[in-house]
Design goal:
The complex is a heterotrimer of chains A (781), B (164) and C (286). Chain A has 781 residues and is α+β, with helices and mostly antiparallel strands. Chain A has 17 helices and 30 strands. In chain A, the strands form eight sheets. Chain A has a seven-stranded mixed β-sheet with strand order 3-7-1-14-11-12-13, sandwiched between helices. Chain A has a five-stranded mixed β-sheet with strand order 9-17-16-15-10, with helices on both faces. In chain A, helix 10 runs parallel beside helix 16 and helix 13 runs parallel beside helix 14. In chain B, helix 3 crosses helix 6. The chains are: A alpha+beta (781), B alpha+beta (164), C alpha+beta (286). Chains A and C meet through helix 3 and helix 17 of A and helix 12 of C.
Chain lengths: 781, 164, 286
């Protein structure tokens, strides 16, 4: 039972009713009247080429076309962490699908027809599709001007190479660690690219009105970051932050794909040339696949040293990331992994090199898990291999090496309080670890696999949140914040946090997605940090209100404010059990005095949160010295699989995941993250398989051939377990869980397959075909 | 332009369309019915589902001109006289996250329960297999429909029951 | 995605009107039944017809009935109608079984079996089912009617024996006269809707006569006559090396985005073995 009234309760989502009734308005649902213009983007058909000419003659003749633009119309650079991108390609295209030109027309059919008629002549350059090729000797340089690109101070680009950033984290005596080891394992693992597949594609409408105001409506995870980047990129036009307004309606799924700025800037830029008219762009499913962000691919080389007793002596982890044509956001994925690629283990000697490498594939960027799924695949697979070689049970091995509160992290700071060992124990118990399972069907094998998980929010040290709360006449509340409910239930959770402080039930609280003109600052809804960060801001705003109420009580009733407390939508007194003043009776209109005057007035609260202990300042060669990560969320997971030995098809009979939420503000929503995250994780392991041809063209930019699971592809049973070891600086002890739920899936599947079939698969995805072929190969030998 | 006449959410409407106008676009842009969503444009995701003569179809795969003389129901129509048992169950079970797939799932579930008020878990999965959801892992959606099915089974054991 | 291509639309109410339009426009015309392939093909610019002829207004196309020992399935009959038809389920059950593996409810409510075979993609699920029965495709033009046996229907990938002045009225599936067991085995990348990586249709009669057909493992769906000849009259226990060699000689799979040819080859053996066992168990269950 929760010790709180509203926190820790599985209350109904506050946006449930509008979503189920079809009332919820998403960006594409907004109406802009008959003056709306539609833009169709013309994309590069080449992966690496010089643009020789763009011929728009035929396109301009199409009835309904208003104007056609090319890159030269917008010579502006942008980027979140590194400014390496132009709004439209200027002279060079660097991936198939890159935006080259735009047709703005009165109707979408005319725009599309005209776009098909634009002729672009290219002079082909040698493309580079593999990150390993890109760092070979004398490679083709994708960004010869890399040395001049502005970037955040904690990035280390290597001029005259394709390495956009190299994060090094070194601690302890690595050579000594390997020298002391009784066993050294070396392996290479590969993880390909993946797509987010939110069911809503990116949609944006932008209007630059005659007064010089730029309004952008976008399906977004990052309204404020977008405002900031639009204002920065378009500053040459005289646009200031106050002139830019981003309005974010409901968003149909994000998973990182709608973080930062991608296609939104196209509409913003086009609008500046189409003054007075709203301009709309809706990405097709195909464009959603190749011109937003993709999850980065990685080749991970690991070397692990161990003592006979199972203790780890040293870890060397080299990660070569295929970050794509532009890395303005993706480089931070590389950075995050460079800090955390030890996994949740105590390791005395550590060397991590995480390299962000340019290739001529679509830009890589944020994706739920932010690099952790990728490196955990190799690391957690190798941990199982190590345990087996040493003859130690995989769960025991993990219990022995699991990181604890206060242990030193790779970059030198200390681990936060956590329930990792409890998670391991509870998952092992639920999956009946150690109990042998045998299939009654001779063509099938039952097997279990285990994995740990951990992830920290990856954010700049000054990423912050803020909140306004206002009381309404009837004692109900509006909370104004600028995080996005991308489905995780953020709006409901913010309501519960305010409800707890103010004793107003969540169903009397309205929280909506933001408008940057009205709602206060929020960095972005990424990194699984909004429950923690914005939750702190909302909590502070609610406390701000509470303190004002107590001050008012003291002034109105001449009784020390310490005697009052809030309960049941009103104020009560410790001194007088009969005292009760309902919020509705004073929070706007004030408290009437005997002389007919009033005390108080509309009560509003403000709260701000910035993690002041965080710092990205560290030694570039060792990564030591800063405190880049605010905390880690940890957990453990296991599966029971049934594998068809002939077809290789895998059925998940049971999946268990325990995650330390610190304090689940809404356990029902946390469980929702676990069931949803597990399936997204399973999808990346078992089904999703992004294929490019040798020209760099994505062959399956659709759900016909990029398979995301259906109702028929879910585990037969999912057991979510919530662990609650409070985060001291979290609201009621809460920390985020959104991304973490999907990241242990790949290694636990790989480990289960090894345990059941003796095949060790070191590259994702692990499709039925790959399993079947591996079994055949093993039988042959 | 061709004139077509059809019944939409109980109301007879006549509008002009081009042969290449897709039903989804016409519903959304000409009739202002925004519950069918555009997710994939090629019939893979189910977000644009509507009931056409009582059967769920992908409105992205139908030319508007084809529905002349037909009857169409969208989630707006299902909601107009108070939310249905299906919708209430989804709300109660926190079935959706981002909610973008929700209208399509409501359509598919409504079709299923009108045909079969007590579907089994397998039948529910089959009926909803064409509606992609990236957020929820489907579990809370399936649980809500199962709950209705159990309820209907229990009721029909006693009274004959209702569906939808 | 809007359709940028302009075309005429006609919805004739008689077969004759439809045939005249077909004769007039020839290959410049597309026939529209369920539209689940056609709309995507037009959207994605794979075809650009001058005219789309909607055949749903013609009564003959909506017939599903028994005719002299055969079942006629009109060109506008949807997969859902086939799945729900007691006639199909009791007489030619593999058609219902394969229909069930096509896409999902919302597509099956619209998509038609005849539309499926007209697409002639190598992976089409309806083909093995129709191939194991004696099936005729009934086509008509202004010049008259023509019967094309199903095994002559699939000419090449995405190409059928249909002439560009003809319209398919429907298929005529002969009801087998002896007791039999059937199975359609489809390999997909997962349990949800997928295009077949490989498909095997099987019918086994009481007197151990085998009918076996494949899809997605060669340029066109086809009967495996050598496999049938080998199996006829024999009790089946498992795939032998000899049988496997014959099976492998009957298929010519390619590697594409859905599967490698090696996996397809491996899995056809598995599907045949499992399919025969399933069909036999169904035969014995009756």
């Amino acid at each position: 039972m929760s010790k709180y009234r509203f926190v820790g309760k599985g209350v109904e989502r506050i946006d449930g009713r509008e979503k189920v009734s079809g009332a919820a308005i998403y960006t594409d649902d907004l109406e802009f009247g008959p003056d709306l213009l539609y833009a169709e983007i013309v994309e590069s058909s080449e992966a690496h080429a010089k643009i020789v000419s763009i011929d728009v003659t035929e396109a301009e003749k199409v009835e309904g076309v208003v104007q056609i633009f090319t890159g030269k119309d917008f010579p502006y650079k942008f980027g979140l962490y590194m400014k390496d991108r132009y709004i439209f390609a200027q002279d060079i295209v660097r991936f198939i699908g890159e935006q080259v030109a735009a047709v703005v027309a009165r109707d979408p059919k005319a725009a599309k027809k005209a776009a098909e008629l634009i002729k672009i002549e290219y002079e082909l350059l040698t493309p580079v599709f593999s990150q390993m090729d890109a760092i070979s000797e004398n490679p083709v340089l994708l960004h010869p001007d890399l040395g001049e690109y502005p970037h955040v101070p904690w990035f280390f680009p290597k001029e005259n190479t394709n390495i956009a950033h190299w994060r090094k984290t070194k601690r302890g005596d690595l050579d000594g660690g390997f020298k002391d080891a009784d066993l050294i394992l070396e392996e290479t693992f590969e993880v390909p690219r993946y797509a987010h597949c939110a069911i809503e594609t990116h949609v944006v409408i932008s209007k630059y009105d005659y007064s010089g105001r730029l309004t952008v409506w976008a399906s977004s995870q990052s309204p404020y970051t977008q405002r900031h980047l639009f204002a920065e990129a378009l500053a040459p036009l005289g646009i200031k932050h106050k002139d830019v307004r981003v309005i974010a309606p409901h968003v149909g799924g994000g998973f990182g794909g709608k973080a930062g700025v991608t296609m939104e800037i196209l509409a913003a830029a086009l609008a500046t040339k189409m003054k007075g008219h709203p301009v709309k762009i809706r990405w097709s499913r195909e464009q959603e696949f190749y011109n937003t962000y993709q999850r980065l691919g990685v080749v991970a080389k690991l070397k692990l040293g161990l003592k006979k007793d199972g203790s780890i002596t040293a870890l060397q982890h080299q990660l070569y990331w295929d970050a794509g044509a532009y890395v303005e956001y993706g480089a931070n994925v590389v950075n995050a992994v460079g800090l955390s690629a030890t996994g949740p283990y105590k390791i005395p000697a550590i060397s991590i090199d995480s390299l962000c490498i340019y290739t001529n594939l679509p830009p890589g960027g944020a994706y739920r898990g932010f690099g952790y799924s990728e490196f955990l695949f190799g690391l957690e697979s190798l941990m199982d291999q190590a345990a087996e070689k040493l003859g130690i049970d995989a769960v025991e091995f993990r219990l022995k090496n699991a990181i604890s509160k206060g242990d030193t992290l790779a970059y030198g700071a200390h681990m936060n309080p956590n329930g990792l060992k409890q998670a391991i124990t509870e998952v092992a118990k639920e999956i009946e670890w150690g109990k042998e399972v045998v299939s009654i069907d001779p063509e099938k094998v039952l097997c279990k696999g285990f994995s740990l998980l951990w992830k920290a929010p990856a954010m700049p040290p000054n990423a912050s949140s803020s909140a306004f709360i206002k009381f309404n006449e009837d004692g109900s509340l509006n909370i104004l914040v600028s995080g996005m409910d991308i489905g995780q239930g953020y709006l409901t959770v913010m309501a519960q946090i305010a409800a707890e402080i103010l004793s107003v039930p969540p169903n009397k609280i309205r929280v909506e997605n933001p408008d940057t003109d009205r709602n206060p600052y929020e960095w972005q809804t990424v990194a699984s940090h909004v429950t923690w960060s914005c939750g702190n801001a909302v909590k502070k705003a609610a406390i701000h209100i509470r303190e004002q109420i107590f001050d008012l009580m003291e002034r109105a009733f001449k009784v020390s404010k310490d005697n009052f407390y809030l309960e049941d939508d009103g104020v009560k007194s410790h001194l007088d059990p009969s005292f009760y003043l309902a919020f509705k009776d004073f929070v706007v209109f004030g408290i009437p005095m005997d002389d007919g005057s009033f005390r108080g007035g509309p009560i509003t609260g403000v709260g701000t949160f910035l993690p002041e202990f965080s710092s990205a300042k560290s030694d570039p060669e060792t990564g030591q010295g800063g405190h880049p990560n605010v905390h880690y969320t940890v957990g453990a997971a296991a599966v029971l699989l049934e594998v068809d030995k002939k077809s290789g098809q895998i059925k998940v009979l049971k999946a268990v995941e325990a995650i330390d939420a610190g304090q689940a503000i809404n356990p029902d929503l946390v469980k929702g993250q676990i069931t949803g995250g597990l399936l997204q994780g399973l999808a990346t392991v078992l089904y999703e398989d992004m294929r490019f041809n040798d020209k760099g063209r994505l062959l399956n930019p659709n759900f016909t051939d990029y398979k995301i699971p259906t109702t028929k592809d879910i585990p037969e049973e999912i057991v979510p377990i919530i662990i609650e070891v409070p985060q001291p600086d979290g609201p009621f002890g809460a920390r985020g869980v959104g991304e973490q739920t999907m990241i242990p899936v790949a290694p636990m599947i790989a480990n289960a397959l090894y345990n059941g079939l003796g095949i060790r698969i070191k590259s994702m995805p692990i499709t039925a075909e790959k399993v079947a072929m591996a079994i055949l190969e093993k039988e042959k030998n | 332009m061709n004139k077509i006449t059809f019944i939409i959410n109980g109301e007879k409407r006549s509008i002009y369309v081009e042969p290449n106008d897709v039903l989804l676009d016409v519903l959304r842009d000409k009739l202002g019915l925004k519950s069918p969503k555009c997710g994939c444009e090629r019939g893979d995701c189910g977000a644009c589902s509507v009931l056409l003569n009582g059967k769920s179809v992908r409105s992205c795969l139908v030319f508007a001109i084809e529905v002349d003389g037909c009857e169409i129901e969208t989630v707006e129509g299902i909601s107009q006289n108070g939310l249905s048992v299906v919708q209430e169950a989804f709300i109660e079970m926190n079935s959706f996250q981002c909610g973008f797939c929700a209208p399509g799932v409501v359509i598919a579930t409504t079709e299923l329960l009108r045909k079969n008020s007590t579907p089994t878990k397998e039948e529910i999965k089959e009926a909803l297999a064409g509606n992609l959801c990236r957020c929820t892992g489907y579990t809370p959606i399936l649980e809500a429909v199962e709950k209705i099915s159990h309820h209907n089974k229990h009721n029909s054991d006693n009274t004959g029951g209702t569906n939808e | 995605m809007v359709v940028a291509h302009d075309f005429l639309y006609q919805k004739p109410s008689t077969l004759l009107d439809a045939l005249k339009l077909r004769a007039q426009y020839g290959e410049k015309c597309s026939l529209l039944a369920g539209g689940t392939d056609l709309v995507v093909n037009i959207k994605e610019r794979r075809i650009s017809p001058d005219i789309v002829i909607d055949i749903k207004g013609i009564p003959e196309f909506s017939i599903l009935e028994e005719r002299d020992g055969s079942i006629f399935i009109g060109s506008a009959i949807t997969f859902t109608e086939l799945i729900e038809s007691p006639l199909i389920k009791s007489r030619v059950p593999i058609i219902a079984e394969s229909a069930h593996t096509v896409a999902s409810v919302g597509v099956r409510n619209r998509a038609t079996l005849v539309g499926n075979i007209c697409s002639a993609v190598p992976s089409l699920d309806s083909a093995p089912a129709l191939l194991v029965y004696k099936t005729d495709v009934v086509v008509e033009s202004v010049d008259g009617k023509r019967i094309i046996p199903i095994d002559k229907w699939f000419v090449a990938p995405k190409k059928t024996a249909l002439q560009n002045n003809e319209i398919v009225l429907g298929v005529l599936v002969e009801i087998p006269n002896s007791e039999n067991g059937t199975a359609y085995m489809k390999l997909g990348r997962y349990s949800g809707e997928d295009l077949a990586q490989a498909g095997v249709g099987i019918m086994i009669s009481k007197n151990l006569e085998y009918k076996i057909a494949f899809c997605a493992v060669g340029p066109v769906p086809r009967r495996a006559l050598k496999v049938e000849a080998f199996l006829n009259g024999k009790e089946f226990s498992s795939i032998t090396n000899e049988l496997s060699e014959i099976i492998q000689s009957e298929i010519s799979p390619i590697t594409d985005i859905r599967a490698s040819k090696e996996y397809r080859r491996h899995m056809v053996d598995v599907l045949v073995e499992r399919g025969i066992k399933l069909a036999l168990s169904r035969l014995q269950g009756e």
